[in-house]
Amino acid sequence: MAETDKTTTPATPITRDDIEAGLRSVVGEAEQKAESTAKKLIPVAVGGALLVLFVAYRIGRRVGTTKSTVVEIRRI
After folding, report:
1. Which of 27, 29, 52, 68 sits a CA distance of 20 to 30 A from 76?
2. CA atoms of 73 and 8, how far apart (whole Å)
3. For residue 57, what pLDDT is reported?
4. How big is the CA angle at 59 (ends 56 and 63), to the nearest 5 degrees?
């Protein structure tokens, strides 16, 4: 099978402005998607941070009760 050349020459040459406009559109789409995703992830991140703080608090209380010294005072 013979390979055919599928490249074509545009009627007008590609300019720097054409390339810049293409890149700007791609970057603009990526920024919009990142912004919308970031807005959704902020509450998840805050919830995760609160969960980590709560777990650390509970573990600290448990360790504190198991390692604390109990002093019993009796009256004779």
Report:
1. 68
2. 96
3. 92
4. 135
